[in-house]
User: Which sequence fits this backbone?
């Protein structure tokens, strides 16, 4: 898997805050970043919360891209 992709499958909800925050700050030079959340609305919500708190510009995937979030910049 490429460096600029974070796949959250297998992570627990309580781990998401730290994992996503570290990922976006450590890889901010590699924009755009992709975060794979899967079909869990709870997981998508947790990731969006971190991105909004960080002031990130992002968009949610739709259609066959559902469950993915693209981060364009911080």
Assistant:
């Amino acid at each position: 898997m490429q460096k600029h992709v974070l796949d959250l499958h297998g992570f627990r909800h309580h781990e998401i805050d730290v994992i996503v925050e570290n990922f976006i700050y450590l890889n901010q030079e590699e924009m755009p970043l992709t975060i794979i959340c899967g079909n869990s609305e709870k997981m998508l919500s947790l990731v969006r919360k971190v991105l909004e708190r960080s002031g990130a510009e992002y968009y949610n995937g739709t259609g066959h891209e559902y469950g993915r979030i693209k981060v364009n910049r911080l």
Residues 41-54 form the longest helix (14 residues). Strands lie at 5-7, 33-36, 57-60, 68-73. The chain has a mean pLDDT of 94.
